[in-house]
Design brief:
It is a single chain. With about 80 residues, this protein is mostly helical. Helices cover about 80% and strands about 0% of the residues. The protein is built from three helices and no strands.
Amino acid sequence: MGGLSIWHWIIVLVVVLLVFGTKRLRSAGRDLGEAVKGFKEGMHDPDKDKPAGQLGNERSAESSQNESERDRAQR
């Protein structure tokens, strides 16, 4: 009752390939990779790298820009 040898893993891999097929496994791997990439990008907050003083200035500039766009849309 030892651990699984390389032959056990090869047999499991062959069975998985037969059951699911290479196309489905390839798309599942691609989906998993995109999910991990999206998660990593989501964890990297670009505002986190900037000093706190710059964050306030950018946010106030964005809000004033949004207000001016709303004023134009109302005219």
